[in-house]
Write a structure and sequence with these properties.
Number of strands: 0
Number of domains: 1
Helix content: over 70%
Largest sheet: none
Order of helices and strands: HHHHHHH
Number of helices: 7
Oligomer: single chain
Shape: globular
Distance between the termini: 44 Å
Length: about 200
């Protein structure tokens, strides 16, 4: 009785059904662009709330920190909704929930270790996007993960070397990195097929 249940669970976890057409590159980049455009106001809202909250001067004017953080946190799930539903991910609602959990699970510790919120936001959103964006045959979870790690390390280095200038391009890094990793996987697969 336990064995048939285990087989049923394994069958449910398959990424996408066989025979599904691969996501065209134009559509993938449209989805990544729309999700990035939605990430930008969420990112700026989160950052504004954190900066005003951390300001030592009580006379510092800015948005209400709690409202800014709440707005940013409310917008982030929609980034994953756009990625999952826009890319045609199977079981998209569950993927969005997993993406949100992973974003918090990765983003909070990375922020604490890095000592800045920007690196944590990039790492958290990137980790969530890895599971939210549909992976076609040949796309590697490992390459996607390395793309997010590299985007996070690049952000970490930029924050320390470029200062405030690093804040502007940071929301572009995680989703673009995943898209590039997928294209590299496709390119290697096509190259291997031609060589065979």
């Amino acid at each position: 009785m336990i064995e048939p249940m285990a087989m049923a669970l394994r069958q449910r976890r398959r990424p996408d059904p066989a025979g599904v057409e691969p996501l065209p590159p134009r559509r993938k980049w449209l989805v990544i662009t729309l999700a990035t455009l939605l990430l930008v106001p969420a990112y700026w809202s989160l950052l504004a709330g954190l900066v005003v909250e951390a300001a030592a001067d009580p006379a510092t004017t800015g948005p209400n920190p709690a409202a800014a953080l709440a707005l940013g946190l409310a917008l982030v799930p929609f980034v994953f909704v756009v990625l999952a539903f826009g890319s045609g991910r199977s079981r998209a609602p569950g993927a969005v929930l997993r993406a949100m959990g992973l974003a918090l699970l990765v983003g909070i510790p990375v922020s604490a270790l890095a000592g800045d919120a920007v690196t944590g936001i990039v790492a958290g959103v990137g980790a969530g996007a890895v599971v939210a964006l549909r992976a076609d045959e040949g796309h590697s979870l490992g390459r996607r993960t390395w793309a997010v790690v590299l985007a996070s390390l690049y952000t970490f280095a930029l924050v320390r070397t470029a200062g405030a200038a690093a804040l502007l391009p940071a929301p572009i890094f995680p989703l673009t990195g995943i898209g590039v990793a997928d294209h590299l996987s496709e390119w290697r697969r096509e190259r291997a097929a031609r060589a065979a």
